[in-house]
Amino acid sequence: MLDANKTLLHFAMINKTLITCILALFICAAPGYAKTVPPNVILIMVDDLGYYDLGCYGHPQIKTPVLDQLAKDGMRLTSFYSGATICTPSRMALLTGAYPSRLGWTKGVLGYLISTNQGMSPNALTIAEIYKSQGYTTGLVGKWHLGDMPKFLPHQQGFDHTYYINKSNNQTKSLWRGDELLEKPFDNRLLTEKFATEAISFIKTNKDQPFFLYLPFTAPHFPVQAHPDWKGKSAFGRGDAEGEKKHDYGDVVEELDHRIGDILKTLKSEKLDQDTIVVFLSDNGPQRNQKAQAIPFRGYKWEALEGGTRVPCIVRWPGVVPPGVESNQLIAAIDLLPSLCHACGFDLKTISKGSPVIDGVNVWDTLAAKKDAIHARKDLLYWHGKEGFHAIREGEWKLFLDGKNAELKRDNKGPVLFNLADENEELIDLSAKFPQKVKELQDLAKERLAEIDTNIIPLSD
User: Fold this and answer.
1) Which of 3, 169, 203, 331 is least surrounded, with the fewest CB atoms within 10 Å of its CB?
2) Catalytic residue at 145?
């Protein structure tokens, strides 16, 4: 009888192995599969962080060992663009993969130039709705800023779990979970800690099932106020011999780095770090008159110069995204939705909710450093925070269609052409030298804008 039982067990093990092999072959054939199906996704967005403001992007005083290590463990992008130069449209772009003008945005943020009675249309298809349709548990922890009214709230836009403030931390004092008001007023100094704690709780609660977590921190958006345990810790902010006043900016960024480290430690302790895609980015460039910096670029938040929209971005997925790699390929926040969906094996063509065209392109081959991959993004439109479309980039060429604006500081109207490979500050106008390139970019911009105009979902009231 013992030998018979051993034989049965032997056959069971063979059958289990055979089934496992068949499943493995099936999974490996799935679109975008590189390691595990389905991976978790954590999308971390910070607020108003400048391109220069991390150690791995060059800042000599702000200490960010966690994010520096994240860059060593993954890919650091040096030509990455947020969805817009200000909060609301940047979030629209990230969550839908579409230029914000497709969703009816023309200028401003919710609560400033956009009525608080308006918001992103419920007809827009969000990344949370996509992941939820594929069996993921979805969470939002942080800043929403896409609508205050009930139909615009995140738990109406695909998020199962929500813990959030509905606008920027200078515009509201209310902290919510779903429709429940948790705190009024909240303590701005403690928000980063609260959001990190909530994110850790979400991860632990959902560790046994695939999850998508969108984590848009409010820091370091003004008012920049340090946590009591972090105040005065950073060397960047203590003042100097020339009389610079003390400030909290370095303290706030360094706390952010530490709290993200706590989240990454949780992934490791729960044995999820190898099976989780982590993306870190900023929503736009630095606010003027704050301590954030966009060196070596010129320009600030609200502006279509490089400093207003070129931001830090780091992508990590151990065993898939190679460690310690830097990419200067043109990539935008709108590309994250199709790229992450591809990495998770989703077929976007079969997922529809009356959404407008997705402007993002799948750049996963670039993020995974696939050999001989052809990079998918060729051009990009730039949006000014108050004045809509301003410029277009194709390759290393960038064209402002009208040079008479405050940022360029020129009196003459007409196109202004820069080559970003030659200089970062957008000071040397090459339009007279390369008239054919000017015309090509003008025609391309006209074509792109005309197509957007035919496929718009307006802001809802």
Assistant:
1) 3
2) yes
Say which of 59, 145, 161, 221 is annotated catalytic.
Answer: 145
Is position 227 annotated as part of the catalytic site?
A: no
Given 87, 313, 341, 344, the catalytic residue: 87
- Kind of pairing between the strands at 109-110 and 113-114: parallel
Question: 383-453 has which CATH code?
Answer: 3.30.1120.10
Domain 35-378 sits in CATH at 3.40.720.10
Distance CA 213, CA 15 (A): 37
Between the two ends of the chain, the Cα-to-Cα distance in Å is: 75
What would the pLDDT profile of 361-382 be if each residue is shown by its tens digit?
A: 999 999 999 999 999 999 999 9
Give pTM, 2 decimals. Answer: 0.91
Closest by Cα among 338, 360, 366 to 131: 338
pLDDT digits (tens, 9 = 90+) for 40-79: 999 999 999 999 999 999 999 999 999 999 999 999 999 9
Domain extent listing, the chain: 35-378, 383-453
Which residue spans within 91-210 are E strands per DSSP? 109-110, 113-114, 137-143, 161-165, 175-177, 180-183
